[in-house]
Design a protein that fits this description.
By secondary structure, the chain is of the alpha/beta class. The protein is 30% helix and 21% strand. The longest helix is centred in the middle third of the chain and has 25 residues. The chain starts with a helix and ends in a 12-residue tail after the last strand.
C-alpha cells in the first residue's frame, strides 16, 4: 500500500455495509438491514445533496410514476394516494420513509463514488468519493450494496442529429430540465414516444401555442382513471391502510402477471384490445397512423396514461403527433425524411437515457480492474469474480421497487449469515457443469429491446440457461425463491479469516 492509500485508509469512515445510492433502492436496502438486525452498522452514500434519486434529479413538468404506487411503493409502507403518483407525492412518501426509519443520520450526501477496490487480505472494500468541490472522502466496508439505479442522472441520451447547430431555438433534454425554460405561447416539439414524452405533452399542451410529439415509431398505451376501485371500496369500510396496501398490491400483481402471460401467448389479441381502446378515443385514422407499433406488446415497455390525458390532448387539437425519422434540423424546426417540416421554437428531447452500470464506478479486485461484461450473474444480483457485493437491477415489466426489496432483504440475510458464522468473504461460483454452457445476454433482445438496453448489452454481465444463473423478469417466481436461497448451496464460496491475517483478516 502506497503512502497516499495508507493515509486515505487511515482517514476512512468504516462501516459493515455501504449502500451506494439514496433513491428508492438504497432506502429499501437500509430499511431491510434494520428490520433484520437493528444493530447492523451501515451507511448510505449518494452524489446528490439530498435523497430521492430519480425523484430528486428529475423536474420536468408533469413528472409522475409510470407504475402504480401500490407496487412501485414499498411493501413495508402503505401507499394511501392515487395509483399514479406525482413526483412531489413520491418525494413526500420517500421523505416519510426516511424519517420513520431514522435513515438520515446514516446518509452521507454529496459524495459521488468514483472508485471501489476490494482487498482479499483485509476482506474490505476501499471506496473513494468526491464532493462537487473536488474534496475526497473514503469509506471502508465489509460489503457493498449497489443501489444507484440504472441510468446516468447527470445527462440523458441525446441522439446525434444533423444540423442541430442551425436551429435558431433552444434544445433541451427532459432529464436536464432548466428551471428558467419559458414555453408559454411557444411552438414546442417533444421528440420521443415513451413514458416521459407521454407525460410531458399533456402537461405542456395547455400552455404552449402548440405541442407536437415526434416519434420514430409508436408506443403501446394503457389508460384509465387514476383511481383504484378496490382500494376505494376498502377505504369506505375503514380497513387498515396496511391491509388495503397489501390486498391491492396482490390484486394488481396478479392482474399484471396475467397480462404479461397474455402478451406472450396471444400477442395479436392483446394488440387489438390495446388499439381498440385507443381507437375509441382518438379515432381510427390517428390510431393507424400514430398508435400502432410494429412490435408485439411488451417487447418494449407499455406506458400508462392516467385519464388518457395524452389521447385527449391530441383529440382536442392542443397537441399533435408526427411519426417519422429526422433528416436534419433547420433554422425553424425539424425536417423529416418524408419531406415534412415541423416548425418549433423549442425542442425537448425525451429520448431516454444511457445506462450507468454499477454506478459508472471504477472497480478493481485485488488490484485488477473489473471487466463486468466477463462475469456471469447469480440471479441478477451477484456476479462471478466480484466478492461481497450485490447489485439492484429492477424488473422491466413490473415495478422496479419489487426487485429492490427482494435484493435488499437477500443482502440483509446474507450479511447476517456471514456475521453469525465469522465469515469474511463470499463469492458466487459457477458449477462445473456450466463450463461449456453458452453465455446469454443480460436480457434477451427478442423479448425486450428498448434502446437503453440495446446500447448497454456489451457492458452487462452474461447469464446462462439455468434460472439460477440469469436475471429473471418473473417477480412471482423470485418472490418465492429469494427468501429461501440456501447459503450452503455450492453456488456460494465463503472464506473465513485466517489466524495469520493473510487471507480475509480482520480490519
Amino acid at each position: 500500500m502506497n503512502a497516499e492509500n495508507a493515509s486515505l485508509s487511515a482517514a476512512a469512515e468504516r462501516t459493515d455495509v455501504l449502500i451506494v445510492g439514496a433513491g428508492i433502492s438504497g432506502i429499501a436496502a437500509g430499511v431491510h438491514l434494520q428490520q433484520l438486525d437493528p444493530t447492523r452498522d451501515f451507511l448510505i452514500v449518494d452524489g446528490e445533496t439530498d435523497f430521492g434519486g430519480t425523484w430528486l434529479t428529475h423536474s420536468y413538468p408533469g413528472l409522475r410514476s409510470d407504475s402504480d404506487l401500490f407496487t412501485f411503493g414499498f411493501g413495508f409502507k402503505p401507499w394511501t394516494g392515487n395509483p399514479i403518483g406525482s413526483g412531489e407525492e413520491i418525494r413526500h412518501y420517500l421523505g416519510e420513509t426516511v424519517g420513520e426509519h431514522g435513515l438520515l443520520p446514516r446518509m452521507r450526501l454529496g459524495y459521488r463514488v468514483t472508485q471501489a477496490s476490494w482487498n482479499s487480505k483485509s476482506c474490505l472494500w476501499m471506496v473513494r468519493a468526491l464532493t462537487a468541490t473536488g474534496d475526497e472522502k473514503a469509506f471502508t466496508a465489509r460489503f457493498l450494496s449497489m443501489c444507484q439505479g440504472y441510468f446516468r442522472h447527470r445527462q440523458g441520451h441525446m441522439p446525434r442529429w444533423s444540423g442541430v447547430e442551425d436551429f435558431a431555438g433552444q434544445v433541451v433534454h427532459a432529464q436536464e430540465w432548466p428551471s428558467n425554460l419559458k414555453l408559454d405561447d411557444k411552438r414546442v416539439l417533444v421528440i420521443g414516444s415513451g413514458a416521459t414524452a407521454a407525460t410531458l405533452v399533456p402537461a405542456l399542451a395547455g400552455r404552449t401555442s402548440h405541442t407536437t410529439m415526434l416519434q420514430r415509431s409508436p408506443t403501446y398505451f394503457t389508460f384509465g382513471a387514476n383511481r383504484n376501485d378496490l382500494a376505494e371500496r376498502l377505504r369506505t369500510l375503514d380497513v387498515p391502510s396496511t391491509w388495503i396496501h397489501e390486498i391491492v398490491r396482490r390484486d394488481l400483481l396478479d392482474r399484471q402477471a396475467t397480462f404479461a402471460r397474455r402478451c406472450a401467448d396471444e400477442p395479436e389479441t392483446v394488440r387489438e384490445e390495446l388499439l381498440s381502446a385507443v381507437r375509441a378515443v382518438v379515432g381510427a385514422d390517428q390510431t393507424a397512423a400514430h398508435f400502432s407499433p410494429s412490435y408485439r406488446p411488451w417487447q418494449q415497455r407499455i406506458a400508462h396514461l392516467p385519464g388518457a390525458d395524452l389521447l385527449h390532448a391530441v383529440k382536442s387539437g392542443r397537441a399533435s403527433i408526427a411519426t417519422g425519422e429526422i433528416e436534419r434540423f433547420t433554422a425553424g424546426g425539424v425536417l423529416l425524411r418524408s419531406g415534412a417540416q415541423i416548425e418549433a421554437d423549442v425542442v425537448i428531447a425525451a429520448t431516454g437515457f444511457d445506462m450507468n452500470i454499477l454506478g459508472d464506478i471504477n472497480f478493481a479486485v485485488d488490484g485488477r480492474p473489473l471487466d463486468f461484461a466477463k462475469s456471469v450473474t447469480y440471479r441478477g444480483m451477484m456476479f462471478t469474480g466480484l466478492p461481497n457485493l450485490t447489485w439492484v437491477f429492477g424488473y422491466i415489466r413490473s415495478s422496479w421497487t419489487l426487485r429492490s426489496e427482494l435484493v435488499g432483504a437477500f443482502t440483509a440475510r446474507l450479511v447476517g449469515y456471514m456475521a453469525e458464522n465469522g465469515l469474511g468473504k463470499v463469492e458466487v461460483v459457477l458449477p462445473g457443469t456450466a463450463t461449456n454452457l453458452p453465455r446469454r445476454p443480460w436480457v434477451d433482445p427478442a423479448n425486450f429491446n428498448p434502446g437503453y438496453i440495446s446500447r448497454a448489452l456489451n457492458r452487462l454481465p452474461r447469464g446462462l440457461d439455468d434460472p439460477e444463473w440469469r436475471h429473471s423478469l418473473d417477480y412471482e417466481a423470485d418472490r418465492i425463491t429469494f427468501p429461501t436461497i440456501d447459503f450452503n448451496s455450492p453456488a456460494f464460496a465463503f472464506t473465513r479469516p485466517s489466524p495469520e491475517g493473510d487471507r480475509c483478516g480482520p480490519p
